[in-house]
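I hope you will forgive my troubling you with a question about protein structure. Here, with my thanks, is the record as I have it:
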Amino acid sequence: MSELTGWQKAAVLLMVTGPEVATQVIRYLGDDEIARITQEMATLGVPPAEAREQVVAEFERLAHGGASATGMAFVRQLLERALGPQRARELIERVVEPAHAVPFEVLRKAPAAQVASLLLDEHPQVAAVALAHLRPEQGAAILKQMPGDVAADIAQRIARARHVSPELMRRIEHSLERRLLLVAPSTPGARPAGGVKVVADLIARVDRETEKDVLGRLEALDPQLAEEVKSLLFTFEDLATLDEASLQRVLREVDQKVLATALKGAPQEIREKVFSNVSTRVAEVVKEQMEVMGPVRLREVEEARRAIVAAVRALEESGEIVITREEEMVVS
Protein backbone atom coordinates (compact mmCIF):
# COMPACT_ATOMS: atom_id res chain seq x y z
CA MET A 1 0.00 0.00 0.00
CA SER A 2 1.43 3.38 -1.00
CA GLU A 3 1.90 6.04 1.66
CA LEU A 4 -1.22 8.13 2.22
CA THR A 5 -1.04 11.91 2.09
CA GLY A 6 -2.25 14.00 5.00
CA TRP A 7 -5.47 14.84 3.17
CA GLN A 8 -6.10 11.18 2.41
CA LYS A 9 -5.54 10.23 6.05
CA ALA A 10 -8.06 12.86 7.13
CA ALA A 11 -10.55 11.54 4.57
CA VAL A 12 -10.10 7.93 5.71
CA LEU A 13 -10.54 8.87 9.37
CA LEU A 14 -13.79 10.71 8.63
CA MET A 15 -15.07 7.73 6.61
CA VAL A 16 -14.26 5.40 9.50
CA THR A 17 -16.25 7.58 11.91
CA GLY A 18 -19.30 7.68 9.60
CA PRO A 19 -21.35 10.62 8.25
CA GLU A 20 -23.09 11.54 11.51
CA VAL A 21 -19.88 12.09 13.48
CA ALA A 22 -17.92 13.40 10.48
CA THR A 23 -20.55 16.10 10.00
CA GLN A 24 -19.81 17.42 13.49
CA VAL A 25 -16.06 17.36 12.84
CA ILE A 26 -16.13 19.31 9.57
CA ARG A 27 -17.91 22.20 11.29
CA TYR A 28 -14.51 23.08 12.70
CA LEU A 29 -12.79 23.09 9.30
CA GLY A 30 -12.38 25.85 6.75
CA ASP A 31 -14.12 25.79 3.36
CA ASP A 32 -10.94 24.91 1.47
CA GLU A 33 -10.23 22.07 3.89
CA ILE A 34 -13.75 20.68 3.53
CA ALA A 35 -13.57 20.79 -0.26
CA ARG A 36 -10.18 19.06 -0.36
CA ILE A 37 -11.14 16.33 2.12
CA THR A 38 -14.47 15.56 0.45
CA GLN A 39 -12.72 15.29 -2.91
CA GLU A 40 -10.27 12.79 -1.41
CA MET A 41 -13.16 10.81 0.12
CA ALA A 42 -14.83 10.48 -3.25
CA THR A 43 -11.59 9.58 -5.03
CA LEU A 44 -10.54 6.96 -2.49
CA GLY A 45 -13.76 4.97 -2.69
CA VAL A 46 -13.75 2.21 -0.06
CA PRO A 47 -10.41 2.36 1.78
CA PRO A 48 -8.72 -1.06 2.15
CA ALA A 49 -8.68 -2.48 5.67
CA GLU A 50 -4.90 -1.89 5.76
CA ALA A 51 -5.38 1.83 5.13
CA ARG A 52 -8.10 2.08 7.78
CA GLU A 53 -5.89 0.36 10.32
CA GLN A 54 -2.91 2.57 9.48
CA VAL A 55 -4.89 5.79 9.91
CA VAL A 56 -6.62 4.68 13.11
CA ALA A 57 -3.32 3.51 14.59
CA GLU A 58 -1.67 6.84 13.77
CA PHE A 59 -4.59 8.70 15.30
CA GLU A 60 -4.21 6.69 18.51
CA ARG A 61 -0.43 7.25 18.58
CA LEU A 62 -0.89 10.99 18.23
CA ALA A 63 -3.51 10.96 20.95
CA HIS A 64 -1.20 9.10 23.30
CA GLY A 65 1.76 11.32 22.48
CA GLY A 66 -0.05 14.55 23.18
CA ALA A 67 -1.86 13.49 26.31
CA SER A 68 -0.84 14.41 29.79
CA ALA A 69 -3.20 11.73 31.10
CA THR A 70 -3.59 8.26 29.61
CA GLY A 71 -4.14 8.26 25.84
CA MET A 72 -7.79 7.21 25.66
CA ALA A 73 -8.72 9.34 28.66
CA PHE A 74 -7.33 12.34 26.84
CA VAL A 75 -9.11 11.41 23.60
CA ARG A 76 -12.41 10.97 25.44
CA GLN A 77 -12.05 14.29 27.22
CA LEU A 78 -11.08 16.10 24.02
CA LEU A 79 -13.95 14.68 21.97
CA GLU A 80 -16.54 15.24 24.68
CA ARG A 81 -15.60 18.92 24.84
CA ALA A 82 -15.69 19.28 21.06
CA LEU A 83 -18.68 17.11 20.17
CA GLY A 84 -20.60 16.40 23.36
CA PRO A 85 -20.81 13.10 25.29
CA GLN A 86 -23.02 11.21 22.85
CA ARG A 87 -21.07 12.08 19.67
CA ALA A 88 -17.75 11.48 21.45
CA ARG A 89 -18.92 8.04 22.54
CA GLU A 90 -19.93 7.16 18.97
CA LEU A 91 -16.54 8.24 17.63
CA ILE A 92 -14.57 6.38 20.29
CA GLU A 93 -16.55 3.18 19.72
CA ARG A 94 -15.90 3.32 15.99
CA VAL A 95 -12.19 4.14 16.27
CA VAL A 96 -11.06 1.81 19.04
CA GLU A 97 -12.91 -1.24 17.73
CA PRO A 98 -10.70 -3.37 15.48
CA ALA A 99 -11.22 -2.92 11.78
CA HIS A 100 -11.66 -6.71 11.61
CA ALA A 101 -14.64 -7.03 13.95
CA VAL A 102 -16.27 -8.92 11.06
CA PRO A 103 -13.66 -11.00 9.19
CA PHE A 104 -13.65 -10.70 5.41
CA GLU A 105 -16.28 -7.93 5.55
CA VAL A 106 -15.71 -6.83 1.94
CA LEU A 107 -16.12 -10.38 0.63
CA ARG A 108 -19.35 -10.74 2.61
CA LYS A 109 -20.88 -7.87 0.64
CA ALA A 110 -19.79 -9.07 -2.81
CA PRO A 111 -21.84 -11.24 -5.22
CA ALA A 112 -21.13 -14.98 -5.05
CA ALA A 113 -20.00 -15.17 -8.69
CA GLN A 114 -17.52 -12.35 -8.13
CA VAL A 115 -16.01 -13.96 -5.04
CA ALA A 116 -15.85 -17.35 -6.76
CA SER A 117 -13.95 -15.86 -9.70
CA LEU A 118 -11.54 -14.20 -7.28
CA LEU A 119 -10.89 -17.35 -5.24
CA LEU A 120 -10.35 -19.55 -8.31
CA ASP A 121 -7.13 -17.62 -8.91
CA GLU A 122 -5.94 -18.27 -5.35
CA HIS A 123 -4.38 -21.34 -3.76
CA PRO A 124 -7.16 -23.69 -2.53
CA GLN A 125 -5.96 -23.25 1.06
CA VAL A 126 -6.44 -19.48 0.82
CA ALA A 127 -9.94 -20.03 -0.60
CA ALA A 128 -10.67 -22.45 2.25
CA VAL A 129 -9.66 -19.90 4.90
CA ALA A 130 -11.85 -17.23 3.32
CA LEU A 131 -14.91 -19.46 2.86
CA ALA A 132 -14.63 -20.76 6.41
CA HIS A 133 -15.20 -17.22 7.68
CA LEU A 134 -18.19 -16.35 5.48
CA ARG A 135 -21.84 -17.09 6.22
CA PRO A 136 -22.69 -20.75 5.42
CA GLU A 137 -25.31 -19.80 2.84
CA GLN A 138 -22.88 -17.44 1.12
CA GLY A 139 -20.10 -20.03 1.14
CA ALA A 140 -22.46 -22.57 -0.40
CA ALA A 141 -23.46 -20.14 -3.15
CA ILE A 142 -19.78 -19.50 -3.92
CA LEU A 143 -18.93 -23.22 -4.07
CA LYS A 144 -21.77 -23.73 -6.58
CA GLN A 145 -20.00 -21.29 -8.91
CA MET A 146 -16.81 -23.37 -8.92
CA PRO A 147 -15.84 -26.52 -10.87
CA GLY A 148 -16.75 -29.68 -8.96
CA ASP A 149 -13.19 -30.86 -8.35
CA VAL A 150 -12.10 -27.46 -7.07
CA ALA A 151 -15.13 -27.16 -4.80
CA ALA A 152 -14.47 -30.62 -3.38
CA ASP A 153 -10.81 -29.81 -2.72
CA ILE A 154 -11.73 -26.60 -0.91
CA ALA A 155 -14.46 -28.34 1.12
CA GLN A 156 -11.95 -31.00 2.20
CA ARG A 157 -9.44 -28.34 3.27
CA ILE A 158 -12.12 -26.54 5.29
CA ALA A 159 -13.05 -29.80 7.03
CA ARG A 160 -9.41 -30.57 7.91
CA ALA A 161 -8.44 -27.01 8.80
CA ARG A 162 -6.85 -26.34 12.13
CA HIS A 163 -6.03 -23.07 13.88
CA VAL A 164 -5.05 -20.16 11.61
CA SER A 165 -3.01 -17.40 13.22
CA PRO A 166 -4.67 -13.95 13.32
CA GLU A 167 -1.70 -12.48 11.47
CA LEU A 168 -2.01 -14.95 8.59
CA MET A 169 -5.75 -14.43 8.39
CA ARG A 170 -5.28 -10.65 8.25
CA ARG A 171 -2.74 -11.02 5.43
CA ILE A 172 -5.12 -13.21 3.45
CA GLU A 173 -7.99 -10.81 4.08
CA HIS A 174 -5.96 -7.77 3.01
CA SER A 175 -4.78 -9.46 -0.16
CA LEU A 176 -8.28 -10.57 -1.20
CA GLU A 177 -9.83 -7.20 -0.36
CA ARG A 178 -7.29 -5.33 -2.47
CA ARG A 179 -7.88 -7.63 -5.45
CA LEU A 180 -11.65 -7.47 -5.07
CA LEU A 181 -11.70 -3.67 -4.94
CA LEU A 182 -9.59 -3.53 -8.09
CA VAL A 183 -11.87 -5.77 -10.16
CA ALA A 184 -15.25 -4.80 -8.69
CA PRO A 185 -15.98 -1.80 -10.98
CA SER A 186 -15.62 -3.96 -14.12
CA THR A 187 -17.54 -6.96 -12.81
CA PRO A 188 -20.99 -7.34 -14.46
CA GLY A 189 -23.78 -6.79 -11.98
CA ALA A 190 -21.48 -5.44 -9.29
CA ARG A 191 -22.32 -2.10 -7.72
CA PRO A 192 -19.24 -0.09 -6.72
CA ALA A 193 -19.41 1.13 -3.14
CA GLY A 194 -17.48 4.26 -3.92
CA GLY A 195 -16.83 7.32 -1.84
CA VAL A 196 -19.25 9.52 -3.78
CA LYS A 197 -22.13 8.24 -1.64
CA VAL A 198 -20.14 9.02 1.51
CA VAL A 199 -19.54 12.58 0.31
CA ALA A 200 -23.23 13.02 -0.57
CA ASP A 201 -24.30 11.75 2.87
CA LEU A 202 -21.88 14.19 4.46
CA ILE A 203 -22.92 17.22 2.42
CA ALA A 204 -26.61 16.44 2.91
CA ARG A 205 -26.14 17.03 6.64
CA VAL A 206 -24.40 20.41 6.56
CA ASP A 207 -26.11 23.78 6.38
CA ARG A 208 -27.18 25.18 3.00
CA GLU A 209 -24.40 27.77 2.77
CA THR A 210 -21.67 25.19 3.41
CA GLU A 211 -23.27 22.76 0.94
CA LYS A 212 -23.34 25.38 -1.81
CA ASP A 213 -19.75 26.46 -1.17
CA VAL A 214 -18.34 22.91 -1.07
CA LEU A 215 -20.18 21.87 -4.23
CA GLY A 216 -18.95 24.99 -6.00
CA ARG A 217 -15.35 24.23 -5.08
CA LEU A 218 -15.74 20.57 -6.03
CA GLU A 219 -17.14 21.64 -9.39
CA ALA A 220 -14.06 23.76 -10.00
CA LEU A 221 -11.77 20.85 -9.07
CA ASP A 222 -13.71 18.04 -10.76
CA PRO A 223 -16.97 18.89 -12.61
CA GLN A 224 -17.91 15.26 -13.23
CA LEU A 225 -17.44 14.34 -9.58
CA ALA A 226 -19.50 17.34 -8.48
CA GLU A 227 -22.31 16.24 -10.81
CA GLU A 228 -22.26 12.72 -9.34
CA VAL A 229 -22.51 14.10 -5.82
CA LYS A 230 -25.37 16.43 -6.77
CA SER A 231 -27.31 13.55 -8.31
CA LEU A 232 -27.28 11.77 -4.93
CA LEU A 233 -28.37 14.76 -2.87
CA PHE A 234 -31.94 14.53 -4.17
CA THR A 235 -33.39 11.33 -5.60
CA PHE A 236 -36.66 10.49 -7.31
CA GLU A 237 -37.89 8.85 -4.09
CA ASP A 238 -37.37 12.19 -2.32
CA LEU A 239 -40.37 13.61 -4.22
CA ALA A 240 -42.43 12.32 -1.32
CA THR A 241 -40.65 14.78 0.99
CA LEU A 242 -41.48 17.91 -1.04
CA ASP A 243 -44.21 20.21 0.20
CA GLU A 244 -47.30 20.43 -2.01
CA ALA A 245 -46.49 23.85 -3.50
CA SER A 246 -42.98 22.79 -4.49
CA LEU A 247 -44.14 19.47 -5.92
CA GLN A 248 -46.86 21.19 -7.97
CA ARG A 249 -44.26 23.60 -9.37
CA VAL A 250 -42.00 20.69 -10.33
CA LEU A 251 -44.79 18.73 -12.00
CA ARG A 252 -45.68 21.71 -14.19
CA GLU A 253 -42.19 21.38 -15.71
CA VAL A 254 -42.50 17.66 -16.45
CA ASP A 255 -43.91 16.23 -19.68
CA GLN A 256 -46.86 13.90 -19.04
CA LYS A 257 -45.25 11.01 -20.91
CA VAL A 258 -42.03 11.43 -18.93
CA LEU A 259 -44.07 11.45 -15.71
CA ALA A 260 -45.97 8.31 -16.74
CA THR A 261 -42.71 6.50 -17.49
CA ALA A 262 -41.09 7.60 -14.23
CA LEU A 263 -44.07 6.38 -12.18
CA LYS A 264 -43.86 2.83 -13.59
CA GLY A 265 -42.89 0.66 -10.64
CA ALA A 266 -42.71 3.66 -8.29
CA PRO A 267 -43.68 3.24 -4.61
CA GLN A 268 -47.39 3.72 -3.92
CA GLU A 269 -46.58 6.66 -1.63
CA ILE A 270 -45.00 8.61 -4.50
CA ARG A 271 -47.79 7.77 -6.95
CA GLU A 272 -50.47 8.94 -4.54
CA LYS A 273 -48.63 12.17 -3.75
CA VAL A 274 -48.06 12.95 -7.43
CA PHE A 275 -51.66 12.27 -8.45
CA SER A 276 -52.97 14.35 -5.54
CA ASN A 277 -50.91 17.33 -6.72
CA VAL A 278 -52.03 17.44 -10.37
CA SER A 279 -55.45 18.13 -11.81
CA THR A 280 -57.94 15.28 -12.16
CA ARG A 281 -57.62 15.49 -15.93
CA VAL A 282 -53.81 15.25 -15.88
CA ALA A 283 -53.95 12.36 -13.40
CA GLU A 284 -56.33 10.45 -15.69
CA VAL A 285 -54.15 11.09 -18.75
CA VAL A 286 -50.99 9.93 -16.98
CA LYS A 287 -52.67 6.79 -15.61
CA GLU A 288 -54.00 5.97 -19.07
CA GLN A 289 -50.53 6.42 -20.60
CA MET A 290 -49.06 4.11 -17.94
CA GLU A 291 -51.55 1.40 -18.92
CA VAL A 292 -51.11 1.87 -22.67
CA MET A 293 -47.30 1.79 -22.65
CA GLY A 294 -47.23 -1.61 -20.93
CA PRO A 295 -43.86 -2.96 -19.68
CA VAL A 296 -41.06 -0.39 -19.86
CA ARG A 297 -37.32 -1.00 -19.81
CA LEU A 298 -35.64 -0.10 -16.56
CA ARG A 299 -33.21 2.16 -18.45
CA GLU A 300 -36.11 4.26 -19.77
CA VAL A 301 -37.67 4.52 -16.31
CA GLU A 302 -34.36 5.67 -14.82
CA GLU A 303 -33.90 8.26 -17.58
CA ALA A 304 -37.38 9.66 -16.92
CA ARG A 305 -36.71 9.84 -13.19
CA ARG A 306 -33.38 11.58 -13.78
CA ALA A 307 -35.20 14.16 -15.89
CA ILE A 308 -37.58 14.88 -13.02
CA VAL A 309 -34.71 15.12 -10.52
CA ALA A 310 -32.95 17.53 -12.92
CA ALA A 311 -36.08 19.68 -12.96
CA VAL A 312 -36.13 19.72 -9.16
CA ARG A 313 -32.49 20.78 -8.99
CA ALA A 314 -32.96 23.50 -11.61
CA LEU A 315 -35.94 24.96 -9.75
CA GLU A 316 -34.07 24.85 -6.46
CA GLU A 317 -31.03 26.60 -7.95
CA SER A 318 -33.26 29.31 -9.38
CA GLY A 319 -34.88 29.79 -5.98
CA GLU A 320 -38.38 28.83 -7.15
CA ILE A 321 -38.64 25.93 -4.70
CA VAL A 322 -36.95 25.07 -1.42
CA ILE A 323 -35.84 21.56 -0.49
CA THR A 324 -35.72 21.10 3.26
CA ARG A 325 -32.57 19.27 4.27
CA GLU A 326 -32.37 17.11 7.39
CA GLU A 327 -30.24 19.80 9.05
CA GLU A 328 -33.00 22.39 8.53
CA MET A 329 -36.01 20.41 9.73
CA VAL A 330 -37.98 21.98 12.54
CA VAL A 331 -39.80 19.97 15.16
CA SER A 332 -42.76 21.64 16.83
